[in-house]
Amino acid sequence: SLPAATLSIREGLTAGMQESLVSGRLDVALLYNATPSPDIDLQPLLEEELFLISPIHGAAHAASLPEAVAVHDLPAFPLIVPSRPNAIRMLIESELANLGLRPTIAFEVDGVGAILDLVGEGFGHAILSRNAVTNLGSGQTLQIRPIAAPGLHAKLALAVNSHRQITATQQALIELLRLVVGEQLLTAPPPAHS
User: How far is 35 from 137, CA to CA, in rounded Å?
Assistant: First the structure.
């Protein structure tokens, strides 16, 4: 045990968290789709598959959606997404840009709970992990569709400043984070498709 240790937890965008690691304002961070940097050591933890989240009501074509939605078909779905530079937003834009396409943005909303509320009310669709929907969404108003292979994946990594010595307290926190993420993997629901 570390009785003298204090813990402060901060939530933010990946880019801002990386800057805080470099400046020393943060000791350890969990980052989605982090940009490699000589100042940051990244230790991959997990890769989460992303799904197209659609309203069950309020969208007449929802019932006729294919079992899996191709990446190149995503512009047909008005999306409710976080504002830039959110990691998942940037992933969606870059993957579509590789195909010469752009997403159709219906609303920019920061906060997964608010995004899922708007999807459930029929204002558009979202691209999120299954865990995000399980933890914050209502299964009665949302449908989860896989994105066809190769799909979209959010990569979660544990990050530390590469120029600073890791203290015993920080190492204990890193081990705790690995344990918690491991438990999350064990309790996550199975994929909807093989």
Answer: 29
Q: pLDDT at position 192, please?
A: 44
- Positions of the chain with pLDDT under 70: 1-5, 57-66, 136-140, 184-194
Contacts of 164 (CB under 8 A, 6+ apart): 24
Two tokens, residue 55: 């309203």
On whether the pTM is more than 0.85, the answer is: no
Cβ-based neighbours of 74, under 8 Å, separated by 6 or more: 52, 92, 96, 101, 103, 127, 147
DSSP 86: -
Give 194: exposed, middle or buried? Use CB within 10 Å, 0-12, 13-18, 19+: exposed
Residue pair 71/99 in contact (Cβ under 8 Å)? The answer is: yes
Token look-up 């400046």 returns 23
Residue 75 burial (CB count, 10 A): 14
Helix (H, G, I), strand (E, B) or coil at 35: coil
Terminus-to-terminus CA distance in the chain, angstroms? 42
